[in-house]
Write a structure and sequence with these properties.
Helix content is 31%, strand content 20%. The chain is built from 13 helices and 13 strands.
Length: 394
């Protein structure tokens, strides 16, 4: 379906597209079943490989009920919660980017008769449990991959028919900093993408309910067929208070200053070399980042040479060959590659796409093998910049 602009919020921080309702466990089950019945491949969080991962759901039972996570720099652990919340966890190693902008896509195929293979139909996804930070990341990818003069038709096809069920965050993790980036914890914050439904989960032991509001006509229509009850003013107020409180519970925060100018002024800082002493240039941060979009292409043939294909694959600016030009890479050193990534993400992204490339999800901190913390690095650059100021100039 065509994507509408992000809806306006009412005074309580929720959408005003339709009257809010409350879903219980049966209502959430009905949501998953109804989406599947309508031909959507429902994708949501589930437990797998000792983490909360995104996968196709067969039923609501596949959600990670009663599971939370403990995270820190270079650390991620599952833990049991004392309730049955399905969305009581922070971001896992995957993002929705992998479904909208897959890690590997075939661009072209040709056999001995010269005929190109028929392109595969774009899947109809329903995303269940999209956090505010990831919704903001979708908004970033929308502008980058489908909002320019030369849109990526594959991305636009997947995105255009996706049904998005967002979840307002009420329990941020230890590495979350979306509040300081203006992208959460409410799903209507910042440059968020449009969504069809928004849920706010309230858990009390085994009793779990969801305040649900529609963000699109399609969402309102779906909500009307689910088992629910009208939301009382107390339900809406309690949900809004829980989301507002989450903004004060973030485990991290970016410095409150002009990060764009800070990085411009810090381009020759010796601190880049200090970071490089810890950075393995492995590219983990770019792989888990929900907004990194760079790709490369490769051509392959079968053993007979009669069938050829061209594939597009994710690439990382930490790869030595990423800037390979005229028999050599432009950025040879680790410091130069890390500086490029961080400066593009927080500074020059504004010039290209009108916003920051960081949404404050904290994935790059958790999944860095050496625990490099993007918020701490920016705080260090801020302290160094303040220390270098001449008091006479103030």
């Amino acid at each position: 379906m065509a994507r509408a602009p992000a809806p306006n919020l009412n005074d309580d921080g929720f959408m005003a597209t339709s009257d809010p309702v409350v879903l219980d466990g049966a209502g959430l089950r009905g949501l998953v079943d109804e989406l599947r019945a309508r031909g959507y491949r429902v994708v949501g969080p589930t437990v797998g490989e000792n983490a909360i991962v995104l996968a196709e759901l067969d039923s609501v039972d596949d959600l990670p009920h009663g599971w939370g996570v403990d995270v820190g720099p270079g650390t991620y652990r599952l833990r049991r919660r004392d309730d049955a919340a399905a969305f009581g966890h922070s971001a896992g190693p995957q993002s929705w980017k992998q479904f909208l902008h897959p890690p590997r896509q075939r661009l072209w195929s040709c056999g001995p008769d010269g005929a190109d293979a028929e392109p595969e139909a774009e899947p109809r996804y329903a995303f269940l449990g999209v956090r505010a930070c990831d919704l903001a990341a979708m908004g970033v990818l929308d502008r980058v991959l489908s909002g320019g003069a030369h849109p990526d038709s594959s991305y636009a096809g997947r995105r255009g028919q996706a049904f998005v069920v967002a979840v307002n965050c009420t329990e941020p993790g230890g590495l979350c900093f979306c509040s300081s980036m203006g992208t959460g914890p409410s799903c209507g914050a910042g440059h968020s993408a449009a969504f069809d439904l928004a849920l706010t989960e309230r858990a009390d032991g085994a009793d779990v309910s969801y305040l649900a509001e529609a963000g699109s006509p399609a969402g309102a229509e779906l909500l009307s067929v689910l088992p629910s009850r009208p939301a009382a003013p107390a339900d809406t107020a309690a949900a809004a208070e829980a989301v507002a409180a989450a903004a004060d519970q973030m485990g991290r925060a970016m410095p409150e200053m002009d990060l764009r100018q800070l990085l411009v002024d810090s381009r020759e800082s010796p601190h880049w070399a200090e970071v490089a002493n810890r950075c393995l240039t492995c590219g983990n941060c770019t792989m888990v980042c929900p907004t990194c979009f760079c790709t490369s292409t490769s051509d392959v043939t079968d053993l007979t040479g009669e069938h050829a294909e061209r594939w597009m694959e994710w690439a990382s600016c930490f790869e030595l060959d990423f800037t390979f030009v005229h028999e050599g890479p432009v950025r040879r050193s680790g410091p130069s590659r890390y500086r490029h990534w961080l400066t593009h993400k927080l500074s020059t992204w504004h010039d290209q796409f009108g916003s920051s490339g960081c949404v404050g999800c904290g994935r790059c901190i958790a999944w860095c093998p050496t625990g490099i913390d993007i918020t701490e690095e920016m705080a260090t650059f801020s302290r160094l910049a303040e220390a270098s100021q001449d008091p006479a100039d103030e």
